[in-house]
Design a protein that fits this description.
two-stranded antiparallel sheet, mainly alpha, 1 helix, 4% strand, 17% helix
């Protein structure tokens, strides 16, 4: 489990957390964003499990949240939802013989 850029998957291997102005060395996306936070959860109110944090409008933009903790995860790539859709389409084609 490592820390990654939410946009491209570049591994954050620098000790400590990224600052507000830090960007990905590969794609220049902001790193201190809700999408990289351990508290981010798309299924809860304001998409944040930490109730102390102020709601952020843009989850992909740098913010000043004092409760930010960069999540450690296995990078799966951006194709998560797309690959599910492609699998479903392939199953339908197989079912109907196309």
């Amino acid at each position: 489990m490592t820390r990654h850029c939410h946009a491209c998957g570049w591994a954050w291997e620098i000790p400590g957390l990224p600052g507000r102005s830090e960007t990905c060395h590969q794609c220049s996306a902001d790193l201190r964003v809700c999408l990289n936070c351990a508290s981010y959860d798309a299924r809860v109110a304001h998409q944040c499990r930490d109730r102390r944090a102020d709601p952020e409008i843009n989850k992909a933009a740098a913010n000043f949240c004092e409760f930010f903790d960069m999540v450690k995860r296995q990078w799966k790539g951006k194709g998560g939802a797309d690959s599910r859709e492609e699998k479903a389409r392939a199953d339908l084609k197989k079912l109907f013989g196309d």
